[in-house]
Amino acid sequence: MITEQPEGMQALLECYSGLLHVCDQLEAIADGLPDSFGIERSTWVADQLLPLLARAHEEEERVLLPLIGLSGHPQVRNLVNRLRHEHQVDEAAALDITETLLALGAGRPLLPPEATGYQLRSFFESVRRHVQAEQDMLFLLDNFTIDAKAKT
Ligand SMILES: [Fe+2]
């Protein structure tokens, strides 16, 4: 049985775990609006979000996207461009989310509570779907690698 992971895989899995934790914190903030969102939680997520997202995207460029790019199927290789586009969209949205969280933490919300909740939910639900899809891809690609090694 092959148990070793490609180099960098563990770092990527840790990034996914961190992002999902941040999504849980964003959900708690959205649920707690307008008064019980937690100033410390809001400030913590504002500090973590952009660096964590950047690290996840770097690890994906090193580990996940090259694996997908090796596929013999053009439709699968096209996923690389789609994922990169989603990363750009998420990074732009994360800038706005960070600004929103810092303002909440400072007691000067930029938007009404309903609009803030909608903004946060749109972001963390999208990131959760994105991470889930990439984890599924890693599972499929890892199985493919193991199958290919087993045949040699
Ligand atoms: Fe990604």
Provide a descriptive summary of the structure in words.
The protein has helices spanning 9-32, 39-69, 74-105, 113-151. The mean pLDDT is 91. It contains 4 helices and no strands. It is an all-alpha fold. It is 83% helix and 0% strand. It has one domain: Four Helix Bundle (Hemerythrin (Met), subunit A) (Up-down Bundle). It is elongated and about 55 Å long. α1 runs antiparallel to α2 (39-69) and α3 (74-105) runs antiparallel to α4. Bound molecules: fe (ii) ion.
List the defining traits of the structure above:
single chain, 152 residues, mainly alpha, Four Helix Bundle (Hemerythrin (Met), subunit A), 4 helices, binds fe (ii) ion
Tell me the layout of helices and strands.
Layout: H1 9-32, H2 39-69, H3 74-105, H4 113-151
The structure holds fe (ii) ion.
Residues 60, 83, 87, 130, 134 line the site of fe (ii) ion.
